[in-house]
Amino acid sequence: MSFSSDFSPRFTSKYDRIWQYLRDQGAPDFRYRQVMQAIFRDRIGRFSQMVVLPERLRRGLASHLDDDVVDLTRVAMRQSEQAEKVLYGLPDGKRVEAVALKFQAGWESFCISSQSGCGFGCSFCATGRVGLLRNMTADEITDQLLDFHLNGRVIDSVSFMGMGEALSNVHTFDAIRLMTRPDLFALSPRRITVSTIGIVPQMDRLAREFPQVNLTLSLHSPFDEQRSAMMPINRRYPIAELMQALDRHVRTTGRKAYIAYVLIRGVNDSDEHARALAQLVTARFRQGQLLHVSLIRFNEVATAPEAFARIGKAGAWRFGEILNRHKVKATVRASFGNDIDAACGQLFANYALKADQPP
Ligand code: SF4
Known about the structure:
- The structure is a single chain.
- The protein has 359 residues and is of the alpha/beta class.
- The protein has twelve helices and twelve strands.
- The chain has helices at 14-24, 29-40, 55-65, 126-130, 138-150, 171-180, 200-209, 224-230, 239-253, 271-282, 313-325, 346-354; strands at 73-79, 83-89, 95-102, 108-111, 115-118, 131-135, 157-160, 192-196, 214-218, 257-263, 291-297, 330-332.
- The strands form two sheets. A ten-stranded mixed beta sheet has the order 1-2-3-4-7-8-9-10-11-12, with helices on one face. Strands 5-6 form a two-stranded antiparallel ribbon.
- α1 (14-24) crosses α3 and α7 (200-209) runs parallel beside α9.
- The protein is elongated, with a radius of gyration of 21 Å.
- The structure holds iron/sulfur cluster.
């Protein structure tokens, strides 16, 4: 298990490199704006096709940075009516995945990765079984969105719920900066959600630097002993510390925080679990009013131990009702794309298992 340092030293994005190149060529400032408009307004993904630029600059950018603006390559895709899942190859051949979800109201939400693999070893998670291959750079993280954008999708909201633990990768903070920059993705921070297993110092940092970004804590058990068995990080940051961190988050940001709870049949779905979870939330007193529990039905994967099974809808509703009875706001999250293994980590894990080659 490793933690990155707080600061990413001298971060330079590809957009900074474009700006620097144009400057080195003596191009006027409006050329940079033209490139950004070509990418983000006109959805042009190759420098050689940006005819608004003089040929000299088009060629120069293509040879200086590579002609494709996106550095990721699509390796595999699976699609259902509401979900599209893409397996990407990073420039060094490692794999990550992203999922686009289309809601009936027309809203499009994107679940992206922050690491290739993951080193935190949660027992129910397919990605955890792969181990950490490496952190993604901020450009690679945002390239997932850029690729969807260039393919005509509208980026309404983004969640860091793909592969990896977003808050253990220092580049996540740089990526959020790129996503919210007005000349680039121009996403409102309120449309971004960071999901974490509970890296407390980085939860505090997120609240300080991006108070409007939504935070979801993956709890999955109200009992320390069980949570430590399911999620080894709990030994470092036990539940009491996590709840205090949520209190601080609510106090610092003045915004609601979310608790994600994956319901696994016969493991953490008992009435006793529901009551203990309700107690944890209501014990926050005033802050408790700004905590919301999202219940997610576990999605079986080839790589999860056989003991982990999906709970039925009725079981999830019953669990939610117990929370509601204790005045805890809870909803059962709609599950999308089980037919395409759209739960985070699964396409990659299955690919890694099936493909007879290293990821
Ligand atoms: Fe890593 Fe998240 Fe999976 Fe845990 S649940 S192993 S932190 S990807």
